[in-house]
Design goal:
- Helix content is 43%, strand content 27%.
- Helix 1 (37-54) packs parallel to helix 2 (70-86).
- It is built from four helices and six strands; from the N terminus they run E-E-E-H-E-H-E-H-E-H.
- The chain is an alpha/beta fold.
- It is globular and about 30 Å long.
- The strands form two sheets. A four-stranded parallel sheet has the order 1-4-5-6. It has a two-stranded antiparallel sheet with strand order 2-3.
- It has a single domain, classed as 2-Layer Sandwich (Transcription Regulator spoIIAA), CATH 3.30.750.
- Strand 2 and strand 3 (24-29) form a beta hairpin.
């Protein structure tokens, strides 16, 4: 499973770390983190899409995200669509009050799988597998 942790604006800020969990834990820096606006959203989307090439389970940790614009919302929708098309599962965790409100206003809360904690998001992958045959 993969957890992509972010901090700052849309979800990418200079020095942001992305934690990859797959048996062992490693961290990596986003090389495009200093890019502003739409470029930042696109860099984030490319990073998550790359993670989805290596795993089917991805969690985006929004706990440090303080702002998001239309480019960020658009990239979230694209990532959700890509995950569905590729048979991957994309979950969102720990949205800040700002992000939570934005997801509600845009009705993305009814489309994205949003969890209040990373633990809850991780556990939901197991629940999905159990309920897949329901």
């Amino acid at each position: 499973m993969v957890a992509a942790g972010t901090s700052g604006g849309l979800g990418i800020a200079e020095g942001s770390e992305f934690e990859v969990q797959s048996g062992s834990t490693k961290s990596r820096q986003c090389p495009d983190c200093a890019l502003p606006g739409a470029n930042e959203a696109n860099a984030f989307s490319r990073l998550v899409a790359e993670l989805m090439r290596h795993t089917r389970n991805v969690i985006i940790d929004f706990s440090g995200v303080t702002s998001m614009d239309s480019a960020g919302i658009g990239e979230l929708v694209l990532l959700h669509t890509k995950a569905q098309a590729d048979g991957a599962r994309l979950k969102c965790a720990r949205p800040s009050p700002f992000v939570h409100n934005l997801l509600n206003l845009t009705n993305l809360n009814s489309v994205l799988d949003i969890h209040s904690s990373l633990e809850e998001a991780l556990e939901s992958f197991s629940e999905d597998e159990v309920c897949a045959d329901c």
